[in-house]
Amino acid sequence: MSDTTNDADAIDRIVADWERERPDLDPSSIGVLGRLMRLANQVRAVESSYFDENGLTLASFDVLANLRRSGPPHRKTAGELATSSMLTTGGITFRLDRMEEQNLIERVRTREDRRVVYAQLTAHGKAVIDEAFGKHLDNQRQMLNGLTESELDQLAALLKKAEASVVAFDAKATDAAGQAS
Fold first, then answer.
1. Which PANTHER family did the record assign (predicted)?
2. Rounded-to-integer distance, Cα 149 and Cα 118, Å
3. Which is nearest to 132 in space by CA: 42, 52, 45, 44?
């Protein structure tokens, strides 16, 4: 049963409404997944305003962070970036064009195979991501300031387990859909 006390939030009210309207169903998953979606949207909004102030987008920050954490020489192909980020290869190419105009990355070809093109951090790009990432972590810590270290560890473990559960469900659903066709 959901919490209908004065501490109830919008999600609690949604769950309570469904419990009242469809007592034959268990809407408790909304308490988890609904909050995760709302939380993700709120975090994205906070981060977007911060990135806007610093001349970045979430996508450009993701690419810069991806290159920076890869270690020297801080470069990857568009395909490697797409695999290890939240963007498609087409999205990466568009983003890299803009980032190259901003002198955040440069495109580099290897001597071994001139067909292979890497996106590589420029000195300016490295300075931008180093400053932005430090501020990004500070913002994240402040957003989670209401939780203790123990709660943060527990939440991270539970979210990891929840993600594995969703991935396993998705794999089963995909397999079932493939077998049905």
1. TRANSCRIPTIONAL REGULATOR, MARR FAMILY, TRANSCRIPTIONAL REGULATORY PROTEIN
2. 39
3. 52
The whole-angstrom separation of Cα 119 and Cα 81 is 9
pLDDT of 38: 96
What predicted TM-score, i.e. pTM, was given to this entire model? 0.79
Give me 177's structure tokens. Answer: 């859909």
DSSP the chain: ----STT--HHHHHHHHHHHH-TTS-THHHHHHHHHHHHHHHHHHHHHHHHHHTT--HHHHHHHHHHHHT-TT-EEEHHHHHHTSSS-HHHHHHHHHHHHHTTSEEEEE-SS-TT-EEEEE-HHHHHHHHHHHHHHHHHHHHHTTTS-HHHHHHHHHHHHHHHHHHHHHHHHHHHHHHHH-
Q: How far apart are CA 136 and CA 144, in angstroms?
A: 12
Instruction: Dump pLDDT digits (tens) for 60-115.
Output: 999 999 999 999 999 999 889 988 876 677 778 888 999 999 999 999 998 888 78
pLDDT, mean over the chain? 90
Instruction: Tell me what pLDDT residue 53 has.
Output: 83
